[in-house]
Amino acid sequence: MFDHWDYLRAALQNNYAFREMSVVQETPLLVQTERGIKKIRFWDDERLLSEHLNWRRKLISDSFFLDRMYATVYGATSIRFDRYMITCHDAPLDQAPIAGKETQWAGLVALLLKKSRGNLPPVAASQVSAQAAYFFSESERVGMVSDTIGQLVRTCYPSVQSRAEIADRLRNQHRSGSKAFILPEDFSFQSTRLLLETLFFELGQSRPVSGYRQLAQFILLAALEQGEEAVQKLLEALAPQFSLERETQDLLLAEWYEPGEWFRLFAAANAPIAAPEEHDLFKKVWDAKTRLIRHVQSVWNMAEMA
Question: Which residues on neighbouring strands pair with residue 43, listed in sequence order?
């Protein structure tokens, strides 16, 4: 792409009236302009681009910024360059912490849950418990390794199976119904930034998928990295949004009940090279999920499931 940088720069300057431009980063392409840093996206699927334009229009809010497509001087939302369509977006750099911004984060999550909705292909029945049973039975058949990790895999299996069954049940009772909560496949809450002390989120440029896994991972990582006090305040701020939304509650909880950390531990136990750090990581993630589940059930007035 940068073999044609002079042509690309000319196209961007002509269409967006930038007087100054220099490359800050090549992948993704960030350029410094007199109006701040801009992200340049390249689209080779015009239908997906059109879907994202409409998606962003649905999510426009007075309370948040999002990576809307800059309009060109001709009023277009994209320009053609070679075989690509190109869009231009703001790209603030300041990280957005949860602590002190819990109410804003809760508002952003509520906005996405309400307005980021769409149709997804039918999903097969969740079979996490069957997968866990198969993995464990195979390990028994061939002989589970006897080191510390292998022993932990074996000891935890009853609890793992219990959690897997709950995850399956929660998911399978919501396999059909209203439009799904969707996010782009490349969406990351961790890419959210601060712009003028307001949350700025990126909708990315990939196809839509169910958004519950990304939301659950965001809350889990926040608990692990930013402290559970901030996450508890976030969940409490979210509580009014979820008071009547059982599907959201169930599908979010299913992500935490799914014992993905046990499957990773299982892989480590059977790997040719030992990975002792997996032992501590498993316990850290398992315990964090346990606390999140209990806290969510408490603040959202849900019945105990396990």
Answer: 85
